[in-house]
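Onboarding guide, step 5: your first structure request.
Type a short instruction followed by the sequence, for example:

Predict the 3D structure of this protein.
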Amino acid sequence: MKFRYARHTNDLHQIEKFYTEIIGLEKLGGFENHDHYDGIFLGFPQQDWHLEFTTSDEKTQSRFDEDDILVFI
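The system replies with structure tokens like these:
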């Protein structure tokens, strides 16, 4: 089974910085202007999962709160 967590964000740079510099994930790849979206893939090489974050001119309406987190064990 493969797992992908995908989420739209208003600040792709800040998301990449947090997950690579603080959490320690690696940037596995990315894309620009695919159907008006830019995105990145974060995780560890050779694993069955990755996180995908996208951004576009369409701003997300969600607001981060304490119930909106990923837990890494």
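Each response can be followed by summary notes, for example: The mean pLDDT is 89.
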